[in-house]
Specification:
Order of helices and strands: HHHH
Distance between the termini: 78 Å
């Protein structure tokens, strides 16, 4: 029973640490040992795995958003006037 309690406390400590370092992991700001620590926990923890996947999707969406051409305000006004005319 004590062993299970200690394992649970260790898991929760790793969970909190991993959650706090997911951004650094994605930014590749962690040293190899820290990256391994994140990967090991994410392999065991479905919650951290979901958070990491969500962060990855968010970053990809932001990159896509930044890459999309943005029409300037004047072009939008001219297009709207043409559509109305």
């Amino acid at each position: 029973m004590i062993r299970r309690l200690l394992e649970r406390r260790r898991f929760m400590r790793e969970h909190r640490w991993t959650h706090a370092h997911l951004s650094g992991y994605l930014d590749q700001d962690l040293d190899p040992g820290e990256r391994e620590r994140v990967e090991e926990h994410v392999g065991l923890c479905p919650q951290c795995r979901r958070v990491l996947a969500t962060l990855r999707r968010t970053l990809a969406d932001l990159r896509d958003l930044a890459a999309a051409p943005r029409p300037n305000l004047a072009d939008g006004i001219v297009d709207r006037l043409r559509d109305e005319g």
